[in-house]
Description:
Layout: E1 5-16, E2 19-30, E3 34-38, H1 45-52, E4 60-66, E5 72-74, H2 80-85, E6 88-91, H3 103-108, H4 114-119, H5 121-135, H6 150-163, E7 168-172, H7 180-195, E8 199-203, H8 207-213, E9 216-221, E10 224-230, H9 236-244, E11 261-270, E12 279-287, E13 290-295, H10 302-309, E14 317-322, E15 325-326, H11 332-337, E16 340-343, H12 347-351, H13 358-362, E17 373-374, E18 377-378, H14 380-394, H15 410-423, E19 428-432, H16 440-456, E20 459-464, H17 467-473, E21 476-481, E22 484-487, H18 493-500
Parallel strand pairs: 3-8, 3-9, 6-7, 7-8, 13-20, 13-21, 16-19, 19-20
Antiparallel strand pairs: 1-2, 1-4, 4-5, 9-10, 11-12, 11-14, 14-15, 17-18, 21-22
Amino acid sequence: MTSDTVLALDGLTKRFGTVLANDAVDLELRRGEVLALLGENGAGKTTLMNMLFGHYMPDAGRVRVAGEDGVLRPLPLGHPQAALAAGIGMVHQHFTLAENLNALDNIVLGSERLRALRRGRAAARRKVDGIMQRSGLVAPLDVPVGRLSVGERQRVEILKALYRDARILVLDEPTAVLTPQEADALFENIGAMTRDGLSVIFISHKLREVLAFSQRIAVLRHGRKVGEIATSDADERAIARMMVGADTPAVAREPLEPGETVLELAGASLRGRSQRDSLADLSLVVRAHEIVGVAGVSGNGQGALAEVVYGLRRPDRGQILIDGAPIARPDPLAMIRAGVGRIPEDRHRDGIVGAMSVAENMVIERLDAPEVASRGLLQKGYIRAHAEELARAHDVRGPGVEAPARLLSGGNIQKLILARVFEQGPRLILANQPTRGLDMGAAAEVARRLLDARARGAGVLLISEDLDEVLGLADRILVIHDGELHEAGSRDRAAIGLMMAGEAA
């Protein structure tokens, strides 16, 4: 322990039934430091931070926070308001926003009395405007959060934490939906704030950011802290070995000759509530044995494109063809029956029903199959045995197939979705942000399964804001901007980045 320590976690332990999520974890944070907290999905990172912030009550251990005098004092556990009062702010990996309220109200909600909220609105706006100017994170303050893009919602979450004048800031995957330029700007400004005394715990799977912006790295594995290293002494390979206990195998895309057309969008147009929710005379072809990557900055029509391809929204004009056959009345059931598998952007909201069991979520897209349901009754024996087989085959880890799916970690929810999709042998796979928030091992597994599907003859439409992912997996690259698609003329990162920003390459 050093004289500039502002936070100390001493022996924090947390169990969920038979699962030991954290096992006597010690962690120290120093004034003005960016500490990266790394580990595989399910390693216990978020659970540890939730105990720090008072969302979970630890089974053992304590938390100490330095006061204005620099003296470490115990923090009352299990009380988020105590953490806020101690100057701890947390940006969660998954959104904690009220979708019916606008961005400004979400930012100040909980930090002002209800009566003062309206009276002090002008002052609150001035403060938020100042934070946006300093941080480079801009959000439309008067728009309901439910109408914002995923990237804009993430910015609101970060602004909400900064608004509370935190001295200790916990960032749980804060750049998962930001462009590289936005992420760099965020960390540059965080760096300026750390020079003024802000201390940051930064959870991420993006090792480029970890190596560029942290000073120290702590690694969790299976709920235990397995080591610390100064960032200046680290590289990606060393970090990977600490995280998984072995080197992560590389995933390579082998050249394949494209086959027949699997998906065709012909002149599809969609008028949404805003430009980011619209498509403009869009044409697209995906062939068998091919991965077509769609790169773009969040909020440029990716969500609308995914919804049209999966039948969640019908285009105002144009056609959708699967294997050359027009889909007359596209809806999700019609697309499933046509052989389309979907990996959704938001796996928690759109990929599972959290209150239903893991086993039920495994079969939720084929309830009309006689082995799943007969005469209106679920065949529970089959469903359980089927889920256990898929869980073993796809390494879905958790408290069991009868447990609610919401208890799974993010990476294991993604494995559940992949198991459900690939089991059906789809002709077309719509993969929308398939590795967002996943660790290196889980992301490599997703990539491997997409490449395996491509090798078997499927077509893959990969929509991703991670340009490295698109460059690594896609046979052809398109760029979406303001609802329009453009073919990337090269695989040059800088040129594609200019197209993503709406500028000529």
